[in-house]
């Protein structure tokens, strides 16, 4: 049975442009990432994106509100990001990610970038947790760097990392309900209640004293980089605390675990997640136990930043999508007072 869920587009001459179609209600309850290679992206690269997709689908397991092709914005789900004739107007269940390998700025500079284009906003009566989760995102990687990254074994890590951002880690902070990740210091600073990622971090520290992770100040965000637009500060876990974890800002290994901390961050964003699919943190993942190896330097070089292009991380132009509360349109700034369901 399909549920009626008109969508409105903010901006333009009319504040609300309704779509008459109905939202998709998927036959299954799994989480599905749709990948679309854009332009002349060679087929030899597709396997890296497919592997990352499958890994994140093991972590995120709950179905999201979907959209039919008739509900697609006029500009497409990618909002014209890839240029004329390269957009997507089809059905989405549960997120569509377009990716492209192209020339950006030459070797050893910007490896790539990712952005959230459209997101679920407003409030859906019984789907309040899905507010602000991405509907569409884009990923681009520099053709000058990709083959070298593949040779060194790092490209898979880079794709997995960027797909984590495309799902909202770092880029969709502060989280819509608890307001986690709203500062450039501690993840829970200023939050409305306990953040799940914070609770998972504390559980990791207390249950694994052998890892010797510094818990002072709680779960910390990376504080290096000139600004949030730099693509490093504020949007990643602290390298000092979590080392090679997949959502820290530096690469120094080809073994980059998705820890329960990142899984918790996805739960904070509103996803249904599977903690059993998280990777185990080991001593060799942490800086206090391992020598750091740079992505682009020798064994003694400082860890090199996964430096993404200095572009907005949540690109939500006039095509911001609002889910109706199955009735009246709800303003973007209306808060959700749903009870805290954080799990430890």
TrEMBL record:
* Name of the protein: Uncharacterized protein
Query: What keywords were assigned to this record?
Result: Hydrolase, Metal-binding, Metalloprotease, Protease, Zinc
* Stretches for region Disordered: 288-309, 325-344
Q: Which Pfam family is one of this chain's hits?
A: Peptidase_M8
What GO molecular functions are on record for this protein?
Answer: metal ion binding; metalloendopeptidase activity
The uppermost taxa in this organism's lineage are: Eukaryota, Sar, Stramenopiles, Ochrophyta, PX clade
What ranges does the record list as Acidic residues composition bias?
330-344
Cofactor(s) of this protein: Zn(2+)
Q: Which family does it belong to?
A: Belongs to the peptidase M8 family.
| Any GO CC annotation of this UniProt entry | membrane
* GO BP annotation list: cell adhesion; proteolysis
* Source species, domain of life: Eukaryota
Q: Which residues form a coiled coil?
A: none
Residues the entry annotates as binding Zn(2+): 236
- What does the Swiss-Prot or TrEMBL cofactor note state? Binds 1 zinc ion per subunit.
């Amino acid at each position: 049975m399909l549920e009626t869920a008109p969508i409105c587009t903010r901006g333009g001459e009319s504040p609300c442009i309704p779509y008459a179609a109905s939202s998709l209600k998927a036959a299954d309850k799994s989480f599905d990432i749709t990948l679309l290679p854009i332009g002349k992206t060679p087929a030899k690269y597709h396997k890296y994106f497919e592997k990352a997709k499958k890994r994140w689908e093991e972590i995120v397991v709950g179905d999201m509100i979907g959209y039919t092709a008739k509900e697609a914005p006029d500009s497409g789900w990618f909002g014209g990001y890839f240029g004329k004739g390269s957009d997507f107007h089809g059905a989405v269940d549960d997120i569509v990610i377009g990716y492209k390998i192209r020339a950006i700025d030459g070797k050893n500079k910007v490896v790539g970038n990712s952005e959230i284009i459209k997101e679920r906003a407003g409030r859906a009566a019984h789907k309040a947790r899905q507010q602000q989760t991405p509907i569409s995102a884009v990923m681009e990687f520099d053709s000058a760097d990709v083959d070298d990254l593949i040779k060194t074994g790092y490209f898979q890590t880079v794709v997995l990392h960027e797909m984590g951002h495309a799902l909202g880690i770092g880029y969709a902070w502060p989280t819509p309900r608890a307001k986690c990740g709203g500062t450039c210091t501690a993840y829970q600073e200023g939050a409305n209640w306990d953040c799940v990622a914070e609770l998972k971090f504390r559980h990791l520290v207390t249950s694994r004293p052998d890892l010797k992770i510094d818990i002072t100040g709680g779960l910390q965000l990376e504080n290096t980089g000139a600004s949030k637009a730099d693509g490093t500060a504020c949007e990643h876990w602290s390298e000092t605390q979590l080392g090679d974890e997949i959502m820290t800002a530096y690469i120094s290994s080809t073994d980059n675990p998705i820890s329960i901390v990142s899984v918790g961050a996805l739960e904070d964003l509103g996803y249904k997640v599977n903690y059993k699919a998280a990777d185990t943190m080991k001593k060799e993942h942490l800086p206090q136990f391992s020598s750091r190896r740079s992505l682009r330097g020798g064994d003694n070089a400082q860890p090199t930043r996964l430096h993404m292009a200095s572009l907005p991380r949540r690109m939500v132009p006039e095509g911001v999508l609002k889910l109706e509360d199955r009735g009246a349109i709800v303003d973007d700034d209306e808060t959700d007072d749903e009870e805290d369901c954080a799990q430890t």
